[in-house]
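User: I'll paste a sequence; please echo it back and then give the predicted structure.

Assistant: Echoing your sequence first, then the prediction.
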Amino acid sequence: MGHGGGSTQTGLCNQNEEVLVFKEFSLGPEALHYVRSCLSAGNTLAELLLDLALEKGQVTVFLPATVTLAALQRFDVGGVATRSEMEASLVPYVKTYLQGPGKRYAVFEAIEQVDDAYLSSVTMERFFTFRHEIYYFLGPHERDSATIAGAIRAARAYPFIGALTSIPRGRPDIQVGQNMESDFIEELAARTAHILVGAYDEEGALIWSKCGAQ
């Protein structure tokens, strides 16, 4: 999963069937400040992610190749893409990560809580809980693009927060509806390789990557 300062490109079709070329842009220290601000507004997982050595990582984003430098640096202002294009740009990134070695997971914070009519409002089948919080997840080697897009779409917005992480080989797989203990959430945070946070009025997602993460 390279981060080549704009060297990675991909084509996406918009509603008019026009092919938009998306580029991977490397961002500076101001992006890290934005990532921290989003995590501080998140749930327990996000709060634990703040304990990582974020300053040792790299922040990138996939946006249309035509985006201006001024727009690229205004993380809280939209007009750079659409939400569906953001989702489409993240799907191959998440899929590539999940297909790597080990027991890899993508975990997304949800807006729903356990008290919400006992999960009647949960919009995705694969979820686990921690105290009153709900998290959607994708498991190891997930290959279905529609399933990945559905998880990204179901995740909470403002802020959208996701973690590409893993669990030790000896730990049992995450089960749907499982209620997790504190040590599990702490482990997910500590083993996170990439953090996804919504930006540009949720039209893009900044991606923090641990140094050397694949």
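The longest helix spans residues 83-98. The mean pLDDT is 88.
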